[in-house]
Amino acid sequence: MGLVNGLPAHVLLVHFVVVLVPLTALALTVGAIWPSAARRMGVVLPLLALVTLASVPLATGAGEWLEEHVGDNALVRRHAELGDGLLPWALGLFALSALVWWAARRTAPAGPAASDGTRWSALPVRAAAVVLSLVVAAGAVVDVYRIGDSGAKAAWHDGFSKTATGQDADDR
Predict the structure, then answer these.
(1) What is the count of structural domains for the chain?
(2) What phi, psi does 8 have (nearest 5°)?
(3) Where are the bilayer-spanning segments (predicted)?
(4) pLDDT tens digits for 61-101?
(5) What is the per-residue DSSP string for the chain?
(6) CB < 8 Å & 24+ apart, contacts of 77-80
């Protein structure tokens, strides 16, 4: 994907990633910790994660096109390397969101005195899902931050003056 309305598509598509990854991470974490929240979110949780997952290769593909159309430098290469690492995090968000959604659908709320013991026997599995969700959510958000920071540095390292210039500077 190249240009959209005269702008590199990457510059537009990254905004989906920057918004959707943290939003999905938050929804996953809330759903994993509070199954009632996962039940309320319903199928929206895995669908949000699926859209997030789809947005990552779109943004990286557009980024690869852009990389071929800008000057070669270490900052751009670093940003591209970091960007290539986001897909596994997005896949993890999707897989865990689907698991949390599925588990919330399958388990009705049971009181602590449930006679069949299903609430307590599922506790280790639920605890593992919570821990995995927290790790993947945090990893995805940190990775998006690192990628965005490196992209901003690559785009703006020589693109502005540290002192005001032009007519507006005279008005101050």
Answers:
(1) 1
(2) -60, 130
(3) 12-34, 43-66, 86-104, 125-147
(4) 999 999 999 988 999 999 999 999 999 999 999 999 999 99
(5) --EETTEEHHHHHHHHHHHHHHHHHHHHHHHHH-HHHHHHHTTHHHHHHHHHHHHHHHHHHHHHHHHTTS---HHHHHHHHHHHTHHHHHHHHHHHHHHHHHHHHH-----TT-TT-HHHHTHHHHHHHHHHHHHHHHHHHHHHHHHHHHHHHHHHTTSS-SS--SHHHHT-
(6) 78/150, 78/154, 79/147, 79/150, 79/151, 79/153, 79/154
Q: Give the whole-angstrom CA distance, residue 39 versus residue 20.
A: 20
Cα 115 to the chain's mean position, in Å?
40
Tokens of 144: 């998006």
Owning domain of residue 98: 3-109+123-157
Contact 19, 64 (CB under 8 A): no
Measured torsion, CA atoms of residues 111, 116, 117, 118, in degrees rounded to the nearest 10: -80
CA dihedral 107, 21, 51, 13 (to 10 degrees): 180
pTM: 0.85
